What we know:
This protein is an alpha/beta fold and 102 residues long.
Amino acid sequence: MKVLLFGRNPATVSRVTAALSAAGLAADGVASEEAVLSRLGVVDALVLGAGVVGSLRERVTAAALRHGVRWVQGPHILPSRDAHEYVRTEILPRLVVSDESG
């Protein structure tokens, strides 16, 4: 599965993208609206960071739906939290539910 992570904090995007890759997903991460919008046509799923809210979230999720890309949003990850554990317990279950529902 090709997954694109979009988050507002580049350091967090880097940590979580590496953990997604370690979990066996073809993962890439971006921290700008322009970057996420330009890559939606080549991914299966979009993972939004907790900081992607309001009108930014509305624009990005609408674009994802137009491209047939399902999306999930993860909860906030503290800098001290292990990214691999976060992906295993917070992101992968959401992706599975998303995959089963649509």
